[in-house]
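Thought: the user wants the 3D structure for the chain below. I'll pass the sequence to the structure tool as-is, report back what it returns, then summarize two notable features.
Action: structure_tool
Action Input:
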Amino acid sequence: MQKSNMAPQGPSRARAHQPCAACKMLRRRCDGDCILAPYFPGHDVQKFAGVHKVFGASNVIKMIQMVEESKREDAVKAIIYEATARVRDPVYGSAGAIFHLQKMIQELKTELELIRTQTRVLQEQRDQLLGIIKNVHPIDPVSPMDFPAVGAAGFLSNDDISCYDPSTFPLDCDWTL
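Observation:
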């Protein structure tokens, strides 16, 4: 018994038209003039399955036919989006998604206003500090000779002042940190 090779040989035996996702799912013959074929290619059955579940095939065909040809692609995208949203949120659909996005926008606007207020406060504080720094006159270093030395009567002598000089402070100490 010989096995025959059933694979198509060349483009002459290949099918000229692949069925669209709608016709595959509905198990019907897909003609070349199928209204759903341009919008639901055969490899994307899941997309049509969601649309069919929410709207039904005949309603989708009616909706597409009601729209002029130049706007049909956008209409189908809107139908797919609404069907996907309805599958995710059966009660609110795309309105729920829009409400959620509007809520996020409002929260972000509030947060942005708070950040702007904080920025203004910090800028005012910075300006105040810069004003203080500019208005402060640098103090000239004062030598110990400018003040009367303290001696036995309560004044320090020059010898007593030098013992507090950090450069001559003894490094060997008996305490540890």
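Final Answer: Structure generated. The chain has six helices and no strands. The helical segments are 21-26, 45-54, 57-66, 72-88, 94-135, 158-162.
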